[in-house]
Write a structure and sequence with these properties.
Blueprint (H helix, E strand, L loop, with lengths): L7 E3 L4 E3 L2 E3 L2 E4 L10 H10 L4 E5 L2 H4 L14 H11 L3 E4 L15 H4 L10 H18 L10 E5 L12 H18 L5 E5 L10 E6 L50 E5 L8 E2 L4 H13 L5 E4 L4 E2 L24 E2 L13 H21 L2 E3 L15 E6 L4 E7 L9 E4 L2 E4 L2 E4 L3 E3 L3 E10 L14 E4 L3 E6 L3 E6 L6 E3 L2 H4 L2 E6 H5 L1 E4 L8 E4 L3 E5 L2 E6 L3 E6 L10 E6 L2 E6 L7 E9 L4 E8 L10 E11 L2 E6 L2 E7 L6 E4 L8 E7 L1 E2 L5 E2 L9 E2 L1 E15 L10
Parallel strand pairs: 4-5, 4-12, 5-6, 6-7, 7-8, 8-9, 9-10, 10-12, 11-43, 25-27
Antiparallel strand pairs: 1-2, 2-3, 13-14, 15-16, 16-17, 17-22, 18-21, 19-20, 22-23, 23-26, 24-25, 28-29, 29-32, 30-31, 31-45, 32-34, 33-34, 35-36, 36-41, 37-40, 37-45, 38-39, 38-41, 42-44
């Protein structure tokens, strides 16, 4: 998609781009919560993960913490961020509030605004006058970068959870949303489409409603395990009543959902921990939830967050949500990691690969999926507490479609089933899949009547082959003549037709490989390829870049025309060609010593030896330190200043990337105690001695390196 090209419209089932069904994927990334010098790299990581749209809040308090003193400098430079989106070719949805939430102080409203003699988020003209100033400042930053200007700004979200988390309801609330929309347009904030969050009884003012769903609720008041989430069952219910339940209990949606497509903006790409509640979302939690939403008929996957970050330093206060500031939760002062697919320091979470399985699919096959309606069989259970019956649904267009199966429920065990045979009727045809065993935790979707076509081969009297059914899932299509599928076990293809005569290639890889697979364009050697690599595979104006923490071992299909410079070809694993380039940098080492211990905290001095790491080299991406501590929380200090913090979850430790801090080689870690009986929800309690957890079990350092794939005759692309 070229920026500025294409008109966005919609019907009651899907978005359309120039009249064609469009299934976009959107990822939230808050520019003001991340260092600006890494924005482009982050946007490229998002594109590599399958994001077709970026979304970002413009937090009012980040830009006007002191009334009249506007701040769009440094990491708050909205114009520079929009320019970065344009440079990498990433369309953007601006969420302009004025209220945002986003676990920000006052939901993003400046303190001074709350002290005025009017009530914010009402239809008071004095409030609208201040909103006008805020919107005008946003427009000053983005003028010339709207879609109509061939810029990246394609969509705009007005307000957030209005009528659910504050604000007015009924006609007064609808009028408020209409006024804000008219104000934005009057100022010049023109977009291809405008959205409003629609869950929990929020009002939408006639804008396109977008929905959400999280696998847990860190904002909930409970410090125990929550009831099973309804986001793991197939249903036509679009509302997730748990979202924003710290503000009020959710109500039914306020708009006629039969008039709008099922779109999401806040599928939880992870979960941001609060002090009293710290669920640790894993990749499977996000993957299974996303698959279920697709089976329910979703035609836009929008993730909040897709990229974690760090709260900026306030001039007057800290800028995170706290009980002391009148918020409903205590959050880390700095960390907004969110256990997102791309985490606070740019490292991958397991959800990155899980989501990419689905985003790669919709990029190549989403147009057809949009046309497929969801069907919920009578024997599909609709209660999330039913762990016995088989959860399934299917989507079809009258002939082709996909079967969706979910035997996963976060934190609960599902019954296992042997020799399950899925059978259902589509129009006049009986669709029957091979028998399958379902284990606890399994989830997948499989095609039926899937056409394998080669656009460049005309087969006289020979129709395109059809996969009648398969226990394998489409990942992508390559070079118009090859299809890549993945399977956890035996794929069991039932194919009608002759692949050879049709000039079609069918490649099946393991699900494990697919989690690390990327489809790259013709930019490398004139062919599309799948590259399987445990790190990142990015495409930019200079070609292909790998970023990872070990040797650069990649599997490629089809084989490269020539071996990349600096690599050697090792072997062929079936139809995958394996290439290797050894890591060039050594590893840093760390020496840790305890320098203070009392009832309030333990402090550790950490010194790094980075003599084996050339941090000034272009190949050096980052140096990470992972702290395996046991306690309640931890803070990192450099030269006495707090630069990072963490709430203990029990999974994965506390990781910090040092490039942000100019590769500091000396810092101090303070760990604060967790006491037996503390009212905190944890999925794993810390290790305690005499009822107290306060220890550093170990610290590891690892280097992240970059490598270019450089053929002698590279064909580079331009965004």
């Amino acid at each position: 998609m070229k920026l500025g090209e294409g008109k966005v419209t919609y019907n009651n089932r899907y978005l359309m781009l120039d009249g064609e069904p469009w299934f976009p994927v959107m990822g939230e990334f808050h520019f003001s919560r991340y260092p600006k010098k890494y924005w482009k790299e982050s946007l490229l990581k998002m594109k590599a993960g399958g994001m077709q749209l970026a979304a970002t809040y413009v937090f009012w308090i980040h830009h006007e913490e002191i009334e009249g003193k506007w701040d769009f400098e440094g990491n708050k430079d909205l114009k520079l961020f929009v320019e970065a989106c344009k440079e990498v070719g990433m369309p953007l949805v601006l969420r302009i509030g004025p209220w945002a939430h986003g676990e920000c102080r006052n939901g993003g409203s400046p303190d001074w605004l709350l002290k005025k003699d009017f009530k914010p988020r009402t239809n008071d003209e004095a409030y609208f006058a201040y909103v006008r100033k805020f919107y005008e400042k946003i427009y000053e930053q983005v003028k010339g970068f709207l879609w109509k200007d061939n810029g990246p700004i394609m969509g705009i979200q007005i307000e957030n959870e209005y009528g659910h988390c504050g604000g007015m309801r009924g006609e007064d609330g609808e009028e408020h949303m209409r006024r804000l929309t008219a104000l934005a347009k009057e100022i010049g904030l023109d977009a291809e489409f405008y959205t409003a969050t629609g869950w929990g009884g929020a009002v939408t003012g006639g804008l396109i409603p977008v929905m959400g769903g999280y696998c847990d609720a860190p904002w909930a008041r409970s410090t125990g395990r929550l009831s099973p989430s309804g986001n793991y069952i197939f249903t036509n219910e679009r509302n997730d009543g748990n979202i924003g339940s710290d503000f009020k209990l959710g109500d039914n949606i306020t708009y006629d959902y039969t008039k709008f497509p099922y779109l999401t903006a806040e599928l939880g790409g992870g979960l941001q921990v609060t002090h009293h509640r710290r669920p640790a979302a894993q990749g499977e939690d996000i993957g299974a939830m996303t698959l279920v939403k697709m089976g329910c008929g979703v035609n836009l996957l929008g993730y909040y967050m897709y990229h974690g970050g760090t709260n900026p330093e306030g001039k007057l206060t800290t800028l995170q949500e706290t009980l002391a500031s009148g918020g409903y939760n205590d959050l880390p002062e700095l960390s907004y990691d969110f256990r997102a697919p791309i985490r606070e320091y740019g490292q991958k979470h397991s959800s990155y690969g899980e989501i990419k399985l689905l985003t790669s699919f919709v990029k190549d096959f989403g147009t057809e999926l949009c046309k497929m309606v969801p069907v919920f069989p009578e024997d599909n259970p609709i209660m999330p507490g039913n762990f016995t019956d088989i959860r399934y649904a299917y989507r079809h267009d009258g002939r082709r479609g996909y079967l969706f199966i979910n035997n996963y429920q976060r934190l609960y065990e599902m019954s296992e089933h042997e020799d399950v045979e899925f059978e259902f009727k589509v129009e006049d045809e009986i669709v029957r899949f091979p028998k399958i065993n379902l284990k606890n935790g399994d989830y997948a979707f499989y095609p039926f009547n899937f056409e394998l076509s080669n656009a460049e081969v005309v087969c006289k009297n020979e129709p395109a082959p059809i996969i009648k059914t398969a226990l394998a899932t489409p990942f992508c299509k390559l070079n118009n003549d090859a299809y890549v599928f993945y399977a956890k076990g035996e794929p069991c293809y039932d194919i009608e037709g002759d692949l050879d005569k049709a000039g079609v290639k069918l490649l099946t890889i393991s699900r494990e490989d697919a989690l690390n697979a990327y489809k790259i364009s013709e930019s490398y050697d004139g062919k599309e390829h799948v590259i399987i690599y445990e790190g990142y595979v990015l495409e930019d104006n200079d070609g292909i870049e790998l970023i990872g923490t070990g040797d650069f071992k990649i599997k490629v299909y089809p084989e490269f025309v020539e071996t990349p410079e600096g690599f050697e070809k090792l072997v062929n694993e079936g139809e995958l060609s394996v290439y290797l380039r050894k890591k060039t940098m050594g590893e840093a080492t760390i020496e840790v010593s305890e320098i203070l211990r009392n009832e309030e905290k333990a402090v550790f001095s950490c010194r790094l030896d980075m003599s084996a790491v050339n941090t000034e080299s272009e190949g050096c991406s980052d140096v990470f330190v992972n702290f395996d501590y046991e306690g309640d929380t931890a803070d990192l200090f450099i030269e006495g200043k707090k630069v990072s913090d963490d709430f203990f979850t029990g999974f994965g430790g506390y990781t910090v990337g040092l490039k942000r801090f100019d590769f500091a080689d000396h810092f101090e870690l303070a760990v604060y105690p967790y006491h037996e009986g503390d009212k905190v929800y944890l999925e794993r309690l810390p290790k305690m001695i005499d009822g107290v957890a306060l220890s550093l079990e170990g610290a590891k350092v690892y280097t992240e390196e970059k490598a270019r794939l450089l053929p002698k005759n590279a064909i580079y692309f331009s965004t």
